Amino acid sequence: MTLPSLRLKANAERRLRAGHLWVYSNEVDVAATPLSLFAAGDQAILEMSNGKPLGIVAISPQNLICARLISRDVKHMLDKSLLVHRINVALSLRERLFDKPFYRLVYGDSDLLPGLVVDRFGDYLVVQMASATMEHHKHHLIEALVQVVKPAGILLKNDSSARDAEGLPRYVDSAYGQVPEWVALEENGVKFEAPVQGGQKTGWFYDHRMNRARLAPYVKGKRVLDLFSYIGGWGVQAAAFGASEVMCVDGSALALDGVERNAALNGVADKLACVEGDVFEALKELKAAEERFDVIVADPPAFIKRKKDLKNGEAAYRRLNEAAMRLLNKDGILVSASCSMHLPEDDLQNILLQSARHLDRHIQLLERGGQGPDHPVHPAIHETRYIKSLTCRILPN
């Protein structure tokens, strides 16, 4: 198959040759190769201004990021063969890292499969496709996953807003076999079931695995508060690690059903209490009731989804962490996390310092954490590094 060309302006290739994978629309020589000639999902040979090929790209002509490098070898376009190869390479890393099949199998650009996320839950795979090119090769992708992983079922969880920019419909569908509503997984020796059909994202957040493991020395015999608990990733593990009591707060009844389900799975139901409702309102009520905790985990959804949300998002992180600090005992531990890609770790650290000083408390930063190695960071693409987790000790001044 002969692919069309997408030509760059003079010197626009420097960033790509240095390792980046994205092409911006203002870098394209639209006089030579108009973007209007392409449809979302097309593949093309990316060329320097002198016509020298740089590789094969997936096209998104209506977006600011109008193309993403799939391969630097023009002989290897996206097809079943390339998908099998890339998935095998991704699998080899995860099997080296983990002794059980519970992990993020494919992490988009970092695994050279832009627009694709695959989470593995033992015999089941949950797939999210955010690019038209991946959508167009959906059948090749399913065949490749079946060949490499041999799963019992594959769920396409394509209900993300990220698909809107590509003009793709949102849907959830079993593409291979039958995937149950709840699937089993294990993390840090703790058993869980995740609602892959109706839960958030793929049903589970493997990205905080290593950060949750760090809870163990801090929670034994302690009273713990888990804010934005979802199905108990932090809270149930805290209980399993020896906490005396854990309170989980979330706005979703489904999520809290998951907390109770997962607590029972691990024999810690007697330690868990659930509060359904707005987290900020719950914090006010706990303060008014003079409740106190030894350890608080604040792991909210992304308060900053776009750069224009930065100011309001930073204020929300400040409000959340300050309210959490007010509920800590004199020598308390706060685990403050953020999944907002637009919030640098240093900014979160400054927010924690400001919050502590406003309350006339002394803060010690004990541990820093990021996303687990099944979410590898592409060093040229800072957007692939999004998870921050800061474990802090909050003391009287």
UniProtKB/TrEMBL annotation:
Residues 272-330 form a coiled coil. Residues 184-376 form the S-adenosylmethionine-dependent methyltransferase domain. One of its GO terms (molecular function) is methyltransferase activity. The keyword Transmembrane helix does not apply. InterPro entries: PUA-like_sf, PUA_sf, RlmI-like_PUA, SAM-dep_methyl-trfase, SAM-dependent_MTases_sf. It is found in: Cytoplasm. GO terms for biological process: methylation. SUPFAM superfamilies: PUA domain-like (SSF88697), S-adenosyl-L-methionine-dependent methyltransferases (SSF53335). The keyword Ribosomal protein does not apply. Its main location: cytoplasm. Keywords: Coiled coil, Cytoplasm, Methyltransferase, rRNA processing, S-adenosyl-L-methionine, Transferase. Belongs to the methyltransferase superfamily. RlmI family. This is Class I SAM-dependent rRNA methyltransferase. It comes from Geopseudomonas aromaticivorans.
